[in-house]
Amino acid sequence: MATPPDISATSATSSVADASAASAASAASAISADVALSGAAAPPAKPAGALGTPEGDPPPIVPRRHLGRGLSAAAALLVFAMVLVSVVRNEAFQWDVVGEYFTTAAVLDGLLLTLWLTGAVMTLGFLFGTVLAVMRLSANPVLRTLSWGYVWIFRSTPLLVQLLFWFNIGALYPTLGLGIPYGPQLFTVKTVNLLGPTLTAVIGLTLHESAYAAEVVRGGILSVDPGQTEAAQALGLSRRRTLRRIVVPQAMRSIVPTAGNMLIGTLKGTSIVSVLAVHDLLYSVQLVYNQNYQVIPLLMVATVWYVATTTVLSAGQYYVERHYARGTSRSLPPSPPRRLRIRLAGLRARLHTVTAAGGR
Q1: What secondary structure, in 3-state letters, does the chain show?
Q2: Considering the entire predicted model, what is its pTM?
Q3: What is the pLDDT of residues 251-278, one digit of tens each?
C-alpha cells in the first residue's frame, strides 16, 4: 500500500522557494530603482573570452613586420661599418699626419681665401644675375636678346677655359684706359699689372656664376602667381616696387634651394683656381705635399675641410628655407634638433615603461 506524501514537508519547501523568489524579485526591483534614480544604464555583462582576452578587451594592435626592410637596413649598416673600419684602420691614410697639418697656418690661410672667394663670387654673381633675369623678363627686345646671349655664351663655355682666357687677357688688350671714346685717354694701365691671379679668379667665377644665377632668379620669378602682380598693379604700385616687395620675397621659396646648391658647388668649384696659382685650400695643400711628399694625408686634410664647410652651409640652407617657407603651410615640420629631442623623449619614456614593468 503506497504511503501518501508528506504534506507538511511539501508545503515547507514551497514556502522556502516562494520566499527566495520574493527576495530575488525585491532585489531586482531595488536595483532597477537605483538605476532609474541615477539615470545610468546597467553595464552589460562581458562574456569571458569573447574577444580573445578573459575580460573581453580588444586585442592589442601589432604593426606589420617588414622582413625585407630589416634585412636591407642590416646589410646597409654592415657595408657602412666595413667601409668605416677600412678607412679608420688603413695605415696608408696616416691619420697622425692629417692631424698634424689640419690646423697649420698655410692650410688655414688657404681655407680663408676659399671662403672669401665663395662669398664674393656668390654675392656678385647673384647681383649681376638678378639684373640679367630682369632684363630677360623685360618688354624691351634688345635687353631680352642681350641677356639671352650672355647666358648662352657663359653657360656654353667650360669654366676652366674661361679662367684661362681671362688670365691671358693681356695678350688681347695689353693696356686698359679710361677716356673719351675715339678720343684722348685720361689714363692707361697695363693689363698685366691690373689683373692678378686672385682678381682674375673673382672675375672669371663671377661671370660664370651670374649666367646660372640669372636662370635661377628668372625661374623663381616665373613661379609666382601672375595674380600677385595684377593685384599690385591694381593697388597702384610701381613695377620696381612690385618686384622688390611682392614678387621677389615669394620667389625666394623657389630660389633658395637652387641657390644653396650653387653655393656649395661654388665652394668646391673654387678649387679650380689652383691652376692660376691662387693660394686657395687645394693649392696650399699642394704646396705642402710637394715638399714632404705626403700626398694622401694632405689631400685628406683638404677633403675634411671641404666636408666640414659644406655641412655648415647645408645646415644654414635648411634654416633659410624654413624662414621663407612661412605662410605656405599652417605648421612647419620640426627642425632636426627638435626631432632629436622628440626621439630621445620617446626613448626615455619607453625605457621607463620597460623598467617599471620589470620592477613589478
Answers
A1: CCCCCCHHHHHHHHHHHHHHHHHHHHHHHHHHHHHHHHCCCCCCCCCCCCCCCCCCCCCCCCCCCCHHHHHHHHHHHHHHHHHHHHHHHCHHHCHHHHHHHCCCHHHHHHHHHHHHHHHHHHHHHHHHHHHHHHHHCCCCHHHHHHHHHHHHHHHHCCHHHHHHHHHCHHHCCCEEEEECCCCCEEEEEEHHHHCCHHHHHHHHHHHHHHHHHHHHHHHHHHCCCHHHHHHHHHCCCCHHHHHHHHHHHHHHHHHHHHHHHHHHHHHHHHHHHHHHCCCCHHHHHHHHHHHHCCHHHHHHHHHHHHHHHHHHHHHHHHHHHHHHCECCECCCCCCHHHHHHHHHHHHHHHHHHHHHHHHC
A2: 0.70
A3: 888 888 889 999 999 999 889 998 888 8
